[in-house]
Amino acid sequence: MHIDTTEDKVYQEVEKLAITNMEVIFSNYNHNTLRGMAQAMKLLFVNLYDKVIVNENQIKKIKNLCANRKGPVIFMPTHRSYIDFLMMSAVLFFYNLEVPHIVAGEDFLGIAGVVHLLRMSGAFFMKRSFRDDPLYKALFNEYVTQLAVDNINMEFFIEGTRSRTNKMLSPKFGILGIITNAFFDKKIEEATFVPVTMNYTRTFEDESFPNELRGAPKVKETLDRIVKAANVLSLNFGTIYLDFFDPISMTQTVANIAKTSADFDPFSKKADRTKFNNYLGNELTFTLQSGIRIMPPTLVSTIMLLYRKGISEENLQ
User: Fold this and answer.
1) Which of 105, 148, 179, 182 to pair with 69, CA 20 to 30 A apart?
2) Does residue 203 fall inside a structural domain?
3) Per-residue pLDDT at 3 exceeds 60
4) Which residue has the higher pLDDT, 233 or 71?
5) DSSP 8-state class, residue 202
6) Cβ atoms of residues 100 and 13 within 8 Å
7) What is the CATH number of the domain that holds 81?
């Protein structure tokens, strides 16, 4: 009997690479760690912010949705700061809601210690692009699909990255497409999306964003940078508003589109899946855009732009 050792070697190498990729991607959820992180975040936020305002009537609706869900609930916040996902997790935790698994960017992968805390608090990690890495793409797609099949709530940013201007960015369809494919392939019965706007008086990154908008490279996150940022604990970052909006269900959205397009069938037509993702991505983006509040810095900035030659403090007030 002849054994193709070359084929075996290739298989072993691919398997080894797959395991390495899975160790990078996968969450390592631990409820005790999550509880500790939530308590630490509470202490941090109490020091940093005057108020964190949440619309509790919508929270009650979300609780009811999660208790009776037929598939995963996907939280879709605006993305303005690295604080976004920490604040979301803390708020959901203290309102006794299941803290979702969060799609996090690779920015934090190089921060020793911090990345492990994030993994155990529900984060899993994604490269900015994996078009040229089919193995990584297959593993990531299957992982997100399996989370959906297991009825695990998730969270990701439809904008893909932080907006430096507070304007909504165009929707990104990668992760959205993985979840909608799970529905259209009938692997899950339902998926429900919850738009959430997060409005800040001031963000942590307000000093680096202007430079990035002028063309400076993105500031890389490191443990040293986090330690040096400890001086922000003496600053006041004002108020945060968390506004949860009415859930958007896959089933209902498909039905709405079908009313205006008789031959619409994303279950069997790949082109119609693309049409659906575009529709849903834009609906989520428009919902988030409509929920952005006019915070004091935005209002002051707008007034100052009307007076290019300057305005006195008295007149500004």
Assistant:
1) 105
2) yes
3) no
4) 71
5) S
6) no
7) 3.40.1130
A 10 A CB-CB count for 169 gives: 17
CA distance 70 to 223: 40
Residue 2 in domain:
no
- DSSP states of 214-268: TTPPPPPP-HHHHHHGGGGGGS---EEEEEE---EEHHHHHHHHHHH-TT--TTT
pLDDT in tens, 219-235: 665 545 555 555 666 78
> Is position 10 within any domain?
no
> Which residues lie below 8 Å from residue 197, measured CB to CB, with a gap of 6+?
77, 78, 241, 242, 243, 245, 288, 291, 292, 293
Q: Which residues of 11-43 are buried (b: 16+ CB within 10 A; e: fewer)?
A: eeeeeeeeeebeebbebebbeebbeebbeebee
Q: Do residues 124 and 103 make contact, with C-beta atoms less than 8 angstroms apart?
A: yes
Q: Indicate whether 273 pLDDT > 90.
A: yes
Is the pLDDT at 1 greater than 50? The verdict is: no
- 11, part of any domain: no
The pTM of the full predicted model, rounded to 2 decimals, is: 0.89
Nearest of 126, 100, 114 to residue 29 by alpha carbon: 100
pLDDT tens string 28-59: 999 999 999 999 999 989 988 999 999 999 99
Whose CA is closest to 61, among 78, 73, 79, 71?
Answer: 73
**Distance between CA atoms of residues 204 and 296, nearest Å:** 16
| pLDDT at residue 17 greater than cutoff 60 | yes
Question: How many domains does the chain divide into?
Answer: 1
Residues 6+ away with beta carbon under 8 Å from 86: 41
Pairing of strands 123-126, 154-155: unpaired
